[in-house]
Amino acid sequence: MPPVPAANAPGPDLGADIVIVGGGFAGLACALELGGSGIDVLLIDARNHNLFQPLLYQVATAALSPADIAEPIRRTLGRHRNLRVLLGRVTGVDVPARALRLADGRRVGFGQLVLAAGSDYNYFGHDDWRPHAPGLKTVHGARLIRQRLLLGFEKAEHLPDPDARRDLLTTVIVGGGPTGVEMAGAVSELGRFLIGRDFRGLFPDDLRVLLVEAGPRILAGFPERLARYAEDTLHEESVEIWTDSTVEAVGEGFVSIGGRQVPAGCVIWAAGVKAAPLAQWLGVEPGEAGRLPVGPDLAVPGHPGIWAIGDAALATGEDGKPLPALAQVARQQGRHLGRALRRQARGGPPPGPFRFRNRGNTAVIGRGAAVFDFGRWQMTGRIAWYLWALVHVWLLVNFEKRLLVSLQWAMRYATRQRSARLIDETADPAMPATTDPEETGPPQAGAARAQTPPRRRIWMA
Ligand SMILES: Cc1cc2nc3c(=O)[nH]c(=O)nc-3n(C[C@H](O)[C@H](O)[C@H](O)COP(=O)(O)OP(=O)(O)OC[C@H]3O[C@@H](n4cnc5c(N)ncnc54)[C@H](O)[C@@H]3O)c2cc1C
């Protein structure tokens, strides 16, 4: 193992034999395999928690709380004395000096480097759309979406104009992949439950959920039969699906799609991802979606002792096609590399080729409805849904989370209730939905504030 360059490690704890960037599925799995090995390992992450992204849509639709699916990285790694954690954002790699640059100016020396910084949503050159159409990548994004959805119901109930009510209760989801499909089903389920049970002044017709996909069909990565099942199920849930439809603009309270401006109270971005900028850090040519090309052993060609795993790495499968950006790929790669580095440190051979074992591809559509694709055979409906639930519970980071999520799901299945319907005080529920007196009617006593802020404030809440 190459030694840590002491000259580039300005503090005694800023440097390690193995430095891992990213504590997501890939980085955490790699670190856990190295736990107890005696190798000095430092894991750096820009946030203090590991996040189970596949269930973020349930946080956004108030079915789960953030803490049900996020776990402090220090807690997970704390039992292994050789694993250290550093909260910090990596901004680049000084390759000749074998050191990482951090956003706060610190430098971290490394002997071997494992890059596992994941991916982010791709707004295809329109980053100004991001505040109007948050994506499901972080706890912050999920809470913002939850806030907009729940506040929309509160505001809409007091709007006498049915068109204004419907505009506010319109949710547009951009991207018809698994995340978009899951979100569309969950928003529709949440809305119908709220209108049916808790909001006296709203009607089922006020709710509109629109799933927009640029391609010819939703769930493009799944067989056509499963996509058709998902489409039929979503139609039963009153979700509108617009395929072959490109989003041209997103602004405060609207989305422009194929020349039509659609007013919307909540816009959610679920269209395509781009990898963390690892290729730029190393000065190499990025591959598809900005991913960093790696060899069969997950090593970055031409950079000895530097590895890349997870969403940010472009590895190919046995069929020569790029491995998908999925949690199961990231986790298997992390485990493979962690074990291999551990063996190598004990004088074993260098890491061998990684082989991905596909455990099936799945998406949930609604209560009791999911699709599962195992390649040779497929599954839809309630059995697929049970299997989806089992797999997701099993993949959670520890027993406590598995228990918490299982209990919440059992309660929700029995009662349809959602326990996390919280609106932050910062959202200011006293804010009006509109300033147009013709729409709002005469001001109510004690509602003087309700006249001042402009209408567009509601979209930003
Ligand atoms: C909404 C959603 C639903 C999904 N559903 C599924 C599913 O059902 N099944 C499935 O298999 N996959 C699913 N995925 C994909 C899956 O979550 C990813 O493939 C997986 O998270 C990739 O793991 P990773 O470790 O590469 O990256 P991540 O899990 O994203 O972790 C990357 C880590 O790196 C950190 N980081 C990033 N940049 C820096 C930096 N510069 N400095 C320091 N730290 C940094 C981040 O904070 C993060 O903790 C879903 C993804 C999303 C967003």
Structure, described:
The protein is an alpha/beta fold. The protein folds into 3 domains: 6-46 and 88-122 and 273-345, FAD/NAD(P)-binding domain; 127-271, FAD/NAD(P)-binding domain; 430-460, no CATH class. It contains 14 helices and 23 strands. The strands form 7 sheets. Strands 1, 2, 5, 6, 7, 8 and 19 form a 7-stranded mixed beta sheet that branches. A 4-stranded parallel beta sheet has the order 12-11-10-16. Strands 13-14-15 form a 3-stranded antiparallel beta sheet, with no helix packed on it. It starts with 14 loop residues before the first strand and ends with a helix. Residues 21-27, 44-47, 53-54, 56-57, 89-90, 116-118, 136-137, 178-179, 276, 310-312, 325-328, 330 line the site of flavin-adenine dinucleotide.
